[in-house]
């Protein structure tokens, strides 16, 4: 038997871990593109929103650009009248994200090779706002419900299995099943990504491009191909993140703002490390929940979750600017 | 001087094959600066061809033209009997032309083994999906390529540092790893940009030996740029001499050594 207060703390910790996994998913998309091309992709969050919008649109059989079509031709189309099963819709949405990766590379970044990082960054800001508007135009701006069949609500199994830990007022740990699924998916995703980077031809080429462009060219690697590949992978990660966040809180504009939560995660984990994104995400998730529980709510009037992650990141920036796992920054004099 | 298609025997008794690559009237400008001015020369199968000249003569620019990093405004590059269209560096590499860089361009974050493995990328044919799932063909390919890489590593005597991250290696060994990566691609033509720059005497001797062995053992045609006249004269079959972007000499080492224009360029004579 443990005191209730302690058990509640453990529950907060577990929920923090689950939230952290979702932060890590978004951060992962940033790391992939930054590592291979030195581009900090501000549009990663919007990509998650766009992916989720596309998925819902396909599943519900929505007619893309229906407002535009109706306005131009005076028609009244909105739905095809069919429903696409979740699995097929996910594959189709992935195909759209690959197409998007290709468009981004050939119409934007191909023309910006060798530019300053700040210019590349500005380009991704432009891309973010363009995609936001484009997504609205394509699928409409109302809040949509995303249901790909992931179970939601507290897990009774876990509640029953842990109820004995506390007294009569304790009913077991409350953990959302969706969070558990998200955690499992994120872990599988990371294992697959790492295996891909380490053991395949394209993965090796990807690491080579991330390391040295000139050397990569000299061994016959096409930079354009690798960048399309990397944006596709980031699109895939965005789709997964979009599904998880979309299922949790509906597909709406605020989805793109979760990207901002990925920033402190990246500062903690380092912009170039895949494991760093995971650990950083977990630290932010657990940190903000525990801080709120232990210090925020009792002493500071609560709502510390909004700023705690940034505060933590600031402390890291001062003492360890390369993050936990990032490559060391050594400036030769 | 010689018939294009015919092989001939050099003064050292080495047999040199037919023309593999020909540069025709290459001119390269950067804005108003002329880096290469109307230069023509050929490279023959199996030879070691050196390009020498004082600093800023345009030697590296010439190598960059061959490897597709620079595109000349005028002139033609002929490779294996056909005019080569303007190509990106990675396309040139896929044609069997490997290179090293003056300032070493290695993948610093990877191990020596991984670096050399990247040289095999173009010999792996498996599609992206089978690679991702990594079964059958892809796995067999990986094993075969690994065997080639191990042979190159043995050949250049870098077994002891196979697993070491490149960033930890001293300069001389990095140069050797870069050569290993180029060799792993099994190139028809190998371009070496100052392979001995910044090395001590012992390292230079080692590198010279490796270059000769590569040429002997694999029959690889080599074009190299070098400052050290002694090394060039010992290694190469034929030498192109450049100065201020122009070609001032071309021929076997002995002939070039006694060329008045070359002597002037190296000793420094007032240009009028």
UniProtKB/TrEMBL annotation, chain B:
Keywords associated with the record: ATP-binding, Nucleotide-binding, Transport
GO molecular function: ATP binding; ATP hydrolysis activity
Cellular component aspect of the GO annotation: plasma membrane
Domain ABC transporter: 21-269
UniProt cross-references to PANTHER family, sorted A to Z: ABC TRANSPORTER ATP-BINDING PROTEIN (PTHR45772:SF1), CONSERVED COMPONENT OF ABC TRANSPORTER FOR NATURAL AMINO ACIDS-RELATED (PTHR45772)
Protein name, UniProt field: High-affinity branched-chain amino acid transporter ATP-binding protein
């Amino acid at each position: 038997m443990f005191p209730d207060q302690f058990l509640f703390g453990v529950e907060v910790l577990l929920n923090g871990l689950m939230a952290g996994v979702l932060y890590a998913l978004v951060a992962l998309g940033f790391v992939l593109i930054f590592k291979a091309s030195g581009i900090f992709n501000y549009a990663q969050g919007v990509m998650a929103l766009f992916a989720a919008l596309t998925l819902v649109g396909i599943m519900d059989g929505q007619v893309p650009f229906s407002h535009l079509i109706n306005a131009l031709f005076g028609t009244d189309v909105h739905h095809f009248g069919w429903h696409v099963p979740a699995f097929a819709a996910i594959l189709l949405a992935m195909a759209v994200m690959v197409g998007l990766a290709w468009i981004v590379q050939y119409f934007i970044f191909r023309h910006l090779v060798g530019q300053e990082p700040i210019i590349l960054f500005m380009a991704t800001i432009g891309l973010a706002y363009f995609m936001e508007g484009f997504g609205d135009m394509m699928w409409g701006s109302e809040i949509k419900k995303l249901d790909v069949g992931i179970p939601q609500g507290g897990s009774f199994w876990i509640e029953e299995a842990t109820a004995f830990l506390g007294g009569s007022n304790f009913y077991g740990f409350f953990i959302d099943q969706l969070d558990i699924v998200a955690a499992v998916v994120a872990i599988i995703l990371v294992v697959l990504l790492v295996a891909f980077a380490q053991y395949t031809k394209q993965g090796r080429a990807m690491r080579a491009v991330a390391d040295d462009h000139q050397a990569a060219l000299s061994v016959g690697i096409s930079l354009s191909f690798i960048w399309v590949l990397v944006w596709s992978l980031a699109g895939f990660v965005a789709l997964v993140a979009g599904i998880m966040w979309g299922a949790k809180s509906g597909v709406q504009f605020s989805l793109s703002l979760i990207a901002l939560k990925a920033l402190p995660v990246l500062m903690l984990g380092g912009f170039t490390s895949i494991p760093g994104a995971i650990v950083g995400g977990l630290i932010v998730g657990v940190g903000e929940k525990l801080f709120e529980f232990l210090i925020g709510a009792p002493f500071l009037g609560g709502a510390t979750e909004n700023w705690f992650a940034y505060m933590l990141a600031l402390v890291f920036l001062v003492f360890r600017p390369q993050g936990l796992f990032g490559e060391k920054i050594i400036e030769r004099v | 001087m010689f018939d294009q298609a015919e092989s001939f025997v050099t003064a050292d008794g080495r047999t040199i094959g037919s023309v593999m690559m020909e540069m025709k009237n290459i001119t390269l400008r950067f804005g108003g600066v002329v880096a290469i001015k109307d230069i023509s020369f050929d490279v023959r199968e199996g030879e070691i061809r050196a390009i020498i000249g004082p600093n800023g003569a345009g030697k590296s620019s010439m190598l960059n033209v061959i490897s597709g990093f620079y595109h000349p405004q005028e002139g033609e590059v002929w490779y294996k009997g056909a005019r080569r269209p303007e190509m990106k560096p990675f396309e040139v590499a896929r044609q069997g032309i490997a290179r090293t860089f003056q300032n070493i361009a290695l993948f610093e974050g990877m191990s020596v083994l991984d670096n050399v493995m990247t040289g095999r990328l173009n010999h792996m044919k498996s599609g992206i999906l089978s690679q991702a799932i990594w079964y059958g063909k892809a796995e067999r390919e990986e094993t075969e390529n690994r065997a080639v890489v191990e042979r190159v590593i043995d050949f250049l005597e870098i077994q002891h540092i196979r697993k070491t991250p490149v960033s930890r290696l001293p300069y001389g060994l990095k140069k050797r790893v870069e050569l290993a990566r180029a060799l792993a691609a099994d190139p028809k033509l190998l371009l070496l940009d100052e392979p001995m720059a910044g090395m001590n005497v012992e390292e230079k001797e080692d590198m010279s030996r490796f270059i000769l062995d590569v040429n002997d053992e694999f029959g690889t045609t080599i074009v190299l740029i070098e400052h050290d006249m002694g090394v060039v004269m010992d290694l190469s079959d034929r030498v192109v001499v450049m100065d201020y972007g122009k070609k001032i000499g071309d021929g076997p080492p002995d002939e070039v050594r006694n060329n008045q224009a070359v002597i002037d360029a190296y000793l420094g004579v007032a240009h009028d």
